[in-house]
Hints:
Order of helices and strands: EEHEHEHEHEHEEHEE
Structural class: alpha/beta
Active site: 122 (proton donor)
Number of helices: 6
Binding site for (6R)-10-formyltetrahydrofolate: 78, 120
Strand order of the largest sheet: 4-3-2-5-6-7-8
Number of strands: 10
Function: Catalyzes the transfer of a formyl group from 10-formyltetrahydrofolate to 5-phospho-ribosyl-glycinamide (GAR), producing 5-phospho-ribosyl-N-formylglycinamide (FGAR) and tetrahydrofolate.
Strand content: 25-35%
Oligomer: single chain
Protein name: Phosphoribosylglycinamide formyltransferase
Pfam families: Formyl_trans_N (PF00551)
Distance between the termini: 19 Å
Amino acid sequence: xxxxxxxxxxxxxxxxxxxxxxxxxxxxxxxxxxxxxxxxxxxxxxxxxxxxxxxxxxxxxxxxxxxxxxxxxxxxxxxxxxxxxxxxxxxxxxxxxxxxxxxxxxxxxxxxxxxxxxxxxxxxxxxxxxxxxxxxxxxxxxxxxxxxxxxxxxxxxxxxxxxxxxxxxxxxxxxxxxxxxxxxxxxxxxxxxxxxxxxxxxxxxxxxxxxxxx
Length: 214
């Protein structure tokens, strides 16, 4: 879908969201709370996790949202697991795939299958501090401002076009848990706002530049 000349994704009255999560699902909970408002423009229609005991499953069950577990141990290799995740996601016919605390790197084949429709959150101001330890790396570098990013997913690690960012100050005496908690609070709000705007207003992508609405 993404081409050098750019592409547009139109808004719909009810975009279908499939959320991938590995943990407790705080971002999922925020999306579920938002989707109860018809004016939000999107609904979570499926949840996929790689961990049978993930709290995200309990949230999905409580909200009446169907879910699937695609555990790595149930597959012969990573390629087969990636195909299993893709099949589980495809069942829900998503308009958007939202990675909300999903702690696995998806294969390029998965990304191509849902190209231009995968959103991810990252606890740093990309392109600074990509990867699994964005909060720790920001602290180690001594930055005074960090934050969170919502971006499209491409074949790299946290390298896709940036959709939205929010700044979070680093306080004297911060450690990784205290800073991460403040970032996660900003991240939930940013994700909900960004997904809703895309659903209502559409998204235009040209190279590395993404514009919501307009």
